[in-house]
Protein: RagB/SusD family nutrient uptake outer membrane protein
Amino acid sequence: MKTKNIIYSFALASAFLATSCVADEDLNQIDPNFETADSFWENETDALEGVNAVYGSLLTDGSYMRSTPLLLDLKGDGTRSNSPWGAMANVGRFNTSVADASIYGWAFETFYQGVYRANQVLENVPGIDMEDQALKNRILGQAHFLRGLYFFHLVNLFKNVPLPLSSLEIYHEQKTQEEGWAQVISDFEAAAGLLPNNYNNVSGADQGQAGRATKGAALAYLGKAHLFTANFAEAKVAFEAVINSGEYRLVDNYRDNFTMVNENNSESIFEVQFSREAGGVDLGWGGAPASGWGKTSARAITYGPPTFGFTDVQPTRILFDDFHKETTISGEVDPRLDATMFYNKPGGMMLYGVDFATHYGANETYLNDLFVAKYQNSDGSRADEYDWRSGINERIMRYADVLLMYAECLNELGQTTAAYGYIQEVRDRVNLPDLASTKPNMTQQQMRDQIAHERFLEFALEGHRFDDIRRWGWLQDSAKLEWLKSRDPEYNSYVPGREYFPIPQSEMDNNPLVTDQNTGY
Structure:
């Protein structure tokens, strides 16, 4: 971030000190080469740069550059990891170590970095005299949205966490998860009241800029927070507002949601903006940003198939099989399969300009294995992912998710028949049969199971599956837990409490107001 609080204490000559005319405060001097928080927040340019820095925390290793997708994906039954890096492989095995904060600890730190930056905006921008009040509102709305998003991840992944609403105090007390969700909801509500539907016709320097948070993004996440706390009536209201806004529709080609083609499209409600062209070429591992940092993602190399990437994350055979449970109207395999994973497909499958069977033909293990296709630069323009610099935007809220979450709310509110249409809208894109004809008159429980299946396939390897498993209470349901174990052996090592990550030990050691470690650690 541009703001630096750097104060130098100068050791003065003893003869000067002997004059006894130097007050203690005179020994603290501001380096004139750096701006301080007190001198930075003066005009609308400063305000925009300040909120841009809040977005910056989405781009580093602890967040969506690499760590956050791993933490969200690996505990689901659609993913597995044979990574030689224990901190990564153990995420999906529910065996994260308090002694090694790699990955989860970086995420924890980065989310709070984003919160701190958002707090600075919310504290300082109201005092800036700006002629364009609408621009001021948009800046504050984005800060509320991003703080809500960072808090969402913290509460969802770490359970009982501090909720700092000020950048001035050093220590912040640990809050309950219920208090955490209340703050998340409060931030998204504030954001929804301040943000525009889009930036096409706004006045100001942000006009036409893609990637900024909108009213639809705030409402979608507001609905999601209500859904995660089983407040289905309020979630329904928020999702209805998104649907009725007319701002969003599903793209025709499902795969366009995971490549550089058609980024910021009509289905994308919020996505993290990566680019190979922006910034420098250094990788943004974390901490204070450096001038040479790029704006690229390491997801592609981390998830990439062997000889093209590190293959630290792979789809499970269960996910592959579930894509074959139902054919399209024309009798074909669900087209989302090929957009989700690479495999030895009859008739051939291309990746990085080569045929799968030809490329892996000499290695029987690879030939019969499954590899991630989503978010890979695999269309032939790139030879591999080994420069660590993917420019593919991460779509973290899609309209398809809103439609299926809305259908879930309808079902939970006893409106099961009404849920069919919203599910079918998602199915129609991939030419699946009319659910009302193939499975008419489902009970509420049958519809719950159907929605779980629909979400499993639609959002595979997008960080949703384990969130769903946890919020549906499957880990506390002995029958569901046994079912998960039969699908994914990694669930055999699950112990209660480990659906959440531990509070990093550094936080426990350094913050006297954080005293309760999560159950199971």
Summary: DSSP finds 23 helices and twelve strands in the chain. The mean pLDDT is 92. The longest strand covers residues 268-272. The two ends are 35 Å apart (CA to CA).
